[in-house]
Amino acid sequence: MHSDLPALQDRKGRKFPYLRLSVTDLCNFRCNYCLPDGCLDHHHSEALTVEEIRRLITAFAAVGVEKIRLTGGEPTLRQDFADIVRTIKEVPGINKLAMTTNGYKMDQRVTDWLEAGIDAINVSVDSLDPLAFELITGHNRLREILAGIQKAFDHGLPSIKVNAVAMQGINDHEIDGFLDWIRDYPVSIRFIELMQTGDNQDFFLKHHFPGKQIQALLLARGWVRKMRLADAGPAQEYCHNDYEGTIGLIMPYSKDFCNDCNRLRVTSLGQLQLCLFAESGIDLRDFLCSDDQQTALVARIRDSLRLKEDSHFLEQGWTGGTQNLSQMGG
Question: Own/partner pairs for 76-79, CB < 8 Å, 24+ apart?
């Protein structure tokens, strides 16, 4: 296996330096926009092993992937989460290893994550009001999550991204509260536009809050859009001279959202997802049994890229096979 293979590229010329790897589809929160009844259907015990993950990441690194984000479900529900982190950090070519978490027991565990090798953390905080947070997530854990964020800073992490799904009638009135929070605090808040999935159509129709409204508010108050890095996620980032923190807007219903797509997804069962809203995945697991299969694995990945659509068609109400976002970490 050569590390100087041509980088992954699709028919539209988009390149993919960024892979989001779900390590479990199990989640222990009951967020109203994703799993309001809890995680009733999962394949946690069947998830990729550490060795399978090593082979998978080695193949993606060989074709230009430099950034990995570990997602779930809730990735830290894996008892071998630290082993996964350490294993990926040893793969040549991987320059950044990030994770997305719901923050469960973050105050107790974040130093372990960082010491294992995590470089960046996204944590979900959909409300800064403890009661509203509990109503959204089903858990009274806001205080421990905020303590965990501070503990990460104290341990030397330079910045943290906070994910907040913006919802009409639920937390849309908290925009100013979030802005006040980051005036003197170096957090990057990601306001994520609520997306329609197979399981949340009624909820989506009632609570969808267009990201363009937040964008208009920011621009009216002097926020300025930042340049986008090559391995960055889908957020449009904004900064302001009077604020320590920054704002990112993830607006999947905006025009040309998919033009800058630079990320692929692999589910916890080894299915390559070319889009969050693809109808189905492409199985890679049969090429993860042995190190001798690396050439065939890379070929399968390359061949799959020819099938990637130009857009997700989400604005047309198409949700593909995605029933809820815990299936593959959003």
Answer: 76/101, 76/104, 76/105, 76/109, 76/113, 77/24, 77/26, 77/27, 77/28, 77/44, 77/104, 78/23, 78/24, 78/47
